Amino acid sequence: MDRTAPAVPRDSAAPGLPAALPGLLRAESLTFGPGSHREPRPEVERYFRDLAGPYDTAFRGEAFTGAPRNSSTEMAAAALDALGPLDAPVDLALVAYAAPDWEHASLVAPYLNHRIPGEPLSFAVSDQGVLAPFTALRVAAEYARRSALHRVVLLVIDQRTQPFVRRDAAVALLLECHDGAAPAPGLGVVPGVAPGDIAATLADRLPDLFTGTAPERTLVVAGSGIDPARDLPAFPGAVTRTEPGRPCTGGWAALLDVLAEPEGSVGPETAVLVEYDRALGDLAHCTLDLRELRSR
Question: What is each CA distance from 186 to 16, 61, 204, 284, in whole angstroms?
Fold first, then answer.
């Protein structure tokens, strides 16, 4: 399901998540080429000159306009196009990225507010590093629980103008939340986990999956901060790794690649996305029930 943009929109039904987690209705993953050159924009160049001035650094306008790139807003627009028509109003629109677009002339959250039907509440989750998508999902579930929101669009973006990103990529998720439910153990961020305690923490948080009785058709998507041989409890399921250099979109792209296997193939019934921020010691996990998706 991971394709090079632009892509032909295609619906992709997906399963409900356990307990209070949002139900994933459709999902698309896109990667992008080098992007386009920019026309000179005096107001933007003036901003960067002012930014560089106190550090005795010259701003080179020709290099700025001559470097091809994809803006976060452009990638968000392509991902929404791939997701297909939104046939019902959306209550909440979130964008998650490790760091904002380095050129602040166009912001994704206001764009989503105008682009998506229903005049949704729109904002970004950033400065969370590799855990940004997990935080965004927790925000969506909590808004649904407290404010009776139902439909959510989540855009996850990696932009390679950031030094820790190797590929421009975007993932679009259409979710349906269930209000009034209690928080679910399948989704969470655990702060202050030492590297040697990752496996024990996962086993404690998700005992039905990471035990000797776990179903064989469980897939673990291990993020960039997870070493499967060292950080995962023993279990009889499969493990897939995220692509290096995709801190936010990699986990979802790896999962969607597995779900795009040929029809009739035996695939996982349950998926667990796991990520660990080794700088902060924060561990995140998200559990999805894939059986409904497999039945459609």
Answer: 12, 48, 12, 10
